[in-house]
Amino acid sequence: MFPVEVFRSEASAANLLEQVRWREGLQCPRCQSESVIKYGSYREYQRYRCKNCGRTFNDKTGTIFAHAKIGLDKLLFAFYSLLRFNTSIRQLDAEIDVSYRSLHRRVERFARTLDAPQLDLVGPVEIDEFYVSAGKKGRERDQESRSRGLSKRGRGNYDEDKPPVFVLVDRGSDQRYVIPSKSADESAVRLLLDSHEEESLTVYTDGFRAYDPLETDETYQREAVIHVEGEYVDGDVHVNTCESHASLARRWLSPHRGISKDKLTTYLRLFEFRRKILRKPGRKALKDIVRTVL
Ligand SMILES: [Zn+2]
Asked: Which stretches does the entry tag as region Disordered (predicted)?
């Protein structure tokens, strides 16, 4: 259920923030003291004073919502709509009349609060890559990389604005990872697969040659499915889960067309986070969003 009541006014959005932020009790953001008293208000927000260090603060202090030009109701609506409905920032600019630049900056700050994925592989692991046509948005024009022409190596690379994105599906832990990379070569593959518990990690790949060196490495058991020979599924040996996950990731990226390659990490972290809240009821999902950025 869409949590429309939260987006009705800044006061109701402030109310939700207050609930989530102090769910385990009030605490001073500076000295962590719990000896805190209510101390008037700052606009729609409750204000507090710490009896230990004397500092005053309000519900937004020290969060990514502090000092925003955009009202909290609009900001929460924007985050919610972006994550649940895959709305582009450009579209939100039109819907709720906020500046593209300010909203974009808040979305970036939001993404930065999300942790980088920790790969701790159990296996068997499917690994595959896809390539994104990146734009120049939010970045200086980079003439040098354009003039370099087609690369002879791999299927696409970062310098040509076709950055590779690796998709890993760990069938052992049921985790999925979507990770952009500078290049799709042996060292990138090794870096991704490096942390695994078992002595030998079973890895399913397609026939791309960046995966070939795994054959001769005893810490990996590589099984390849060769697409060009029309062989797609050979029992357990396939990368189909990667492929369907990659198509979800592509669909997620598509309304944000033209995002530059150095912003890919931001959008792919949001994509990973989105999966965690996708099936939750609206108000619960919104609370999870707020809790994540606090
Ligand atoms: Zn204090």
From this structure: 138-158
Query: How many angstroms separate the alpha carbon of residue 27 from the centre of ligand 1?
Result: 8
Neighbours of 225 (CB within 10 A): 18
Cα gap 44→16, rounded to integer Å: 12
How many A from CA of 56 to the centre of ligand 1? Answer: 8
Beta strands in 219-260 (DSSP E): 220-224
pLDDT for 232 equals 60
pLDDT under 50: residue ranges of the chain: 138-153
Q: Are strands 164-170 and 220-224 parallel, antiparallel or unpaired?
A: unpaired
CA distance 188 to 207: 16
Predicted local distance difference test score (pLDDT) of residue 124: 96
For the chain, list the domains and their CATH numbers.
4-113+279-292 (no CATH), 125-140+154-259 (3.30.420)
- Spacing, Cα 137 to ligand 1 middle (Å): 42
Give the distance (Å) from ligand 1 centre to CA of residue 141: 46
Question: Which pLDDT score, from 0 to 100, does residue 133 have?
Answer: 81
**How far is 103 from 58, CA to CA, in rounded Å?**
22
Predicted local confidence at residue 282, as pLDDT: 96
- 87 Cα to the center of ligand 1, angstroms: 39
